């Protein structure tokens, strides 16, 4: 990351939900010569497909129903700086073509306008999909893939960074101490062991939330297992106290959580201690259809 940050190269960050993709994108921006210019983040998974072009390139008043005023798009807003496209695999084929053109020609045209605007933006994108597979399936353009992927960063899952788990837990504890005006000093032995053994399906985001809640609940100087009940298997009572062993266990836990919540995905995600987006990704991963 230190090597690529100061350059103007397009970076593709690949990793599961909550592994820190946006955090890294911001670091790349801060370590670049563009640091004082804007950093504009867009979640391509959250914008309706038909509004994506207007979100990126802006539009002129009256160019489509609902375009009541002129709108500045993200490319113009980020001019001189960095644009971060999260979940880039979600863009429609049509918008992918427009995006490629904007990147190649360094010019954009707002929807409904015939004037082109020169832009200078550095692109950092993120995905938790395998875009090479998407290319094979024909849902992602290969030419765009090469353009956005001059350099790839792969974010490991938290469970595969065992040596970093306690470092992150203590970092989030310090953060929560400051935020909540608490003065905890660490985790007791059983709590540390549980942190190390847990599978962290929601990665760093899940850990940050769990540690923050534990910090709030803790009565003493150290966080104990009592405050980390999520780590003792959030769902299946038969597996209480056992860490998730493998993907099959995780799949079973997800199915169990869905059953327990009457197939309400938001509540199931809550019960599992992961965010909804992570749950959606896992449903896809394990081929669970509702
Ligand atoms: N290296 C890090 N140091 C401290 N905090 C971090 C680090 N990486 C990530 N975080 C924190 O973890 C949380 C999740 O990170 P982030 O939002 O970057 O993940 P993400 O991979 O972009 O997630 P998603 O795919 O769901 O959008 C954030 O609150 C972020 O501040």
TrEMBL record:
GO terms for biological process: regulation of DNA-templated transcription. CDD domains: AAA. Keywords: ATP-binding, Nucleotide-binding, Transcription, Transcription regulation. The keyword Plastid does not apply. Gene3D superfamilies: 1.10.8.60, Homeodomain-like, P-loop containing nucleotide triphosphate hydrolases. The keyword Transcription applies. GO terms for molecular function: ATP binding; sequence-specific DNA binding. This is Putative transcriptional regulatory protein, ZraR-like. The gene is zraR_3.
């Amino acid at each position: 990351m230190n090597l690529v940050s100061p350059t103007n190269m397009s970076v593709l960050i690949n990793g599961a939900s909550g592994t820190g993709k946006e955090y890294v994108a911001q670091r790349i921006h801060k370590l670049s010569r563009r640091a004082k210019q804007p950093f504009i983040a867009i979640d391509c998974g959250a914008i309706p497909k038909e509004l994506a072009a207007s979100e990126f390139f802006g539009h002129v008043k009256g160019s489509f129903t609902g375009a009541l005023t002129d709108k500045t798009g993200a490319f113009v807003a980020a001019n001189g700086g960095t644009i971060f496209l999260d979940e880039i695999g979600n863009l429609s084929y049509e918008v992918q073509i427009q995006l490629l053109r904007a990147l190649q020609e360094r010019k954009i045209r707002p929807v409904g306008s015939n004037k082109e605007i020169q832009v200078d933006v550095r692109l950092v994108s993120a995905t938790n999909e395998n875009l090479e597979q998407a290319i094979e399936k024909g849902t992602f353009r290969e030419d765009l893939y090469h353009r956005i992927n001059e350099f790839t960063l792969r974010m490991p899952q938290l469970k595969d960074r065992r040596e970093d788990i306690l470092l992150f837990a203590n970092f989030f504890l310090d953060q929560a101490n400051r935020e909540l005006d608490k003065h905890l000093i660490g985790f007791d032995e059983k709590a540390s062991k549980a942190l190390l053994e847990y599978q962290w399906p929601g990665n760093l985001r899940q850990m940050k939330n769990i540690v923050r809640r534990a910090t709030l609940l803790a009565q003493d100087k150290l966080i104990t297992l009592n405050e980390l009940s999520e780590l003792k298997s959030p769902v299946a009572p038969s597996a209480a106290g056992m860490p998730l062993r493998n993907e099959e266990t995780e799949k079973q836990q997800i199915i169990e959580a869905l059953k327990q919540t009457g197939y309400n995905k938001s509540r199931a995600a809550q019960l599992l201690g992961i965010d909804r987006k992570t749950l959606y990704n896992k449903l896809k991963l394990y081929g669970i259809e509702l």
